[in-house]
């Protein structure tokens, strides 16, 4: 396994930013996840770790940090072999999407721009396993990597004032799901009936950074059923363990 | 119960924040001016994390349905208990049926109402702070009833403090942010040589500053952000993230406010001037 150079710097008085090379690479994310596992294995109090693409923001909630001390600890965790027993399981999540026109309001336009039929577009969108490089922007919003270049399309010229919860969109090199109603400029091709964020659950966002996501197509009838399940809180997700 | 007769401009319930869910994209939330909250809760001899009301600009009208003790802190919005003026930073006994209302905003922007024992609304993900979609509502609704415990007798060790308003003055202290080194001399000069005005786009998520500085074309991968992170948009707009601010962002993080600076900024409103000072 490759280990990358890291850059450590203070971020305010109670946080530290650790940056890996400025690239979107699964092997970099892997390195960050292993570092995070090593750090968690120390079982220190009050830390929150926010991973996104090539960086990890480490926040100490209980007070002010001694930067010199924490830097040494970070270097130690980074050079240490991975803590096997502390390894966090990684999953491939199968996420249902209904691509019917009622939800996929831009699908015909997008397909035309990309020189694809809507069926080809759905086929390509569902054939990939996307890596979760980060969660942020909104609670439960996943930054997904690995979109086929044939599906790259610019954002809409004018953002919409409201994109509905569950909308699945395309924008540039990204695809993703709006976890709640929100303004937004992505091209909407479908809708996911499963809540991406549920504050009544102990882990409100079922996906973690480093997991993978694959979409599959469902009919309107199945969508309606999944919505009812979600409303009463009995929805279940299909997941497979990934051997990282 | 505390009955909300009028909700005011934007009144929320806050404690010190919701920790441990930033990796789910959940902001920390919590009181914008932690300093003011700390003082109010200390005078009432509450736990530091006891929930308070955060009252923004225009106060609500509230009726107490059980006796207790309260303490107001932060902004001065001319508070009245049964139409009689009361002071900030003072423990005040209230009786069943008493009404708390507010008048003119004299100074600051956010006032805190602490109550003996704290407000007892349900905790969601370890905090009582309102934030949609973690909680159902983002602010108090008219006719809503907020739970608290009755207290009939309490002798405070200190019943009143005189504190200089910690939010006087325009100076906001900042540290270098992770992308500070991308700033050019002309950008640095623009940031630190003149005051900025708080724009009308200011809320619990972020404060935007009205004046632009020279823009940039720096592109970066999305990375973590904190309350107090100053982001710079390509157009040269500075956006200061606050307590409900997003946990990650893609704009360069040029500066970082300390917790004290966040408290001070939280008491500024549209049109107020601030002067950034590098520590």
Automatic annotation (TrEMBL), chain A:
InterPro entries: CT_C_D, Cyclophilin-like_dom_sf, PxpB. It holds the Pfam family CT_C_D. The keyword ATP-binding applies. GO terms for molecular function: ATP binding; hydrolase activity. Residues 6-207 form the Carboxyltransferase domain. Signal peptide: none annotated. Keywords: ATP-binding, Hydrolase, Nucleotide-binding. This is Allophanate hydrolase subunit 1. The lineage of its organism: Bacteria, Pseudomonadati, Bacteroidota, Flavobacteriia, Flavobacteriales.
UniProtKB/TrEMBL annotation, chain B:
It holds the Pfam family CT_A_B. Keywords: ATP-binding, Hydrolase, Nucleotide-binding. Gene3D superfamilies: Cyclophilin-like. GO terms for molecular function: ATP binding; hydrolase activity. InterPro entries: CT_A_B (IPR003778), Cyclophilin-like_dom_sf (IPR029000), PxpC (IPR052708). It comes from the Bacteria. Residues 23-278 form the Carboxyltransferase domain. The keyword Hydrolase applies. The keyword Flavoprotein does not apply. PANTHER family: 5-OXOPROLINASE SUBUNIT C (PTHR43309). This is Allophanate hydrolase subunit 2 family protein. It comes from Flagellimonas nanhaiensis.
